[in-house]
Amino acid sequence: xxxxxxxxxxxxxxxxxxxxxxxxxxxxxxxxxxxxxxxxxxxxxxxxxxxxxxxxxxxxxxxxxxxxxxxxxxxxxxxxxxxxxxxxxxxxxxxxxxxxxxxxxxxxxxxxxxxxxxxxxxxxxxxxxxxxxxxxxxxxxxxxxxxxxxxxxxxxxxxxxxxxxxxxxxxxxxxxxxxxxxxxxxxxxxxxxxxxxxxxxxxxxxxxxxxxxxxxxxxxxxxxxxxxxxxxxxxxxxxxxxxxxxxxxxxxxxxxxxxxxxxxxxxxxxxxxxxxxxxxxxxxxxxxxxxxxxxxxxxxxxxxxxxxxxxxxxxxxxxxxxxxxxxxxxxxxxxxxxxxxxxxx
Length: 345
Fold this sequence. Notes:
This protein is an alpha+beta fold. The chain is built from twelve helices and six strands. The chain has two domains: about 10-210, Rna Polymerase Sigma Factor, Chain: A, CATH 1.10.1740; about 220-340, Nuclear Transport Factor 2, Chain: A (Roll). The protein has a six-stranded mixed sheet with strand order 2-1-6-5-4-3, with helices on one face.
């Protein structure tokens, strides 16, 4: 059953809906706030940025308040809000178009990655996903599946133009019917199906080859935990060479918002060494484990010479395949607050 087919039931009582339409702000907050986190995930998929997603959820609620009298109760409040959020995201993308950047081959082992880089990409803290899970009051909420939030998926869908991207998310992720998507986008069912085919082809082109074989289990295995322990130990020792045996030969390393990408473990390690890892300036680190996009992540802190505390340096989000690291995406320290990470260690 699609989001549009669900009825609003007891969680969306007629009294509350009537109060909202009458301009009761408290009733409005009660009605929409329970959907905040899942709408944030939806906007995040559309935009690839947590900061932008937060802004668009606020824009969605503002638009919903202004248009509260248009809610007729024929579909669920969730479906109504998803319609508003999707259009808000499409409007934002129209105002500020973004295209993935092609990394330039150059010095220091930088190589083309085979796909353009999404320089505005931000990680999504797993701790926020808990608020997007269904509750007893909202059993029809869509569970966030690992394969629809991982960074590789997030990168791939950013290569899809905005409207086909919306179609793909609404149809394949949220389970909407083509008829309902056509109504939302004010187009025909045939156009929706055509856009979906194009979007699926683009998605397949930009996902890593072994993507369909990834394990959807979000629980870290004993082997993964051991690998993470080794990763932390090597980081805190500033031992770049120790990473070689942890990585696949064709591993990738990128650092949004920078467009560069390194392909191959030897090139990655060489770049880290050239960047100074292991020198007196870059050898005193501490790490904290966390999770982003249902993937393991390592928060790295550095203590500069003469400093008494370790300060945020970067967040490494890892993709692990067959017991080795296949991808490292490193984000700047401004993402730490979203993860509830301390500002000093």
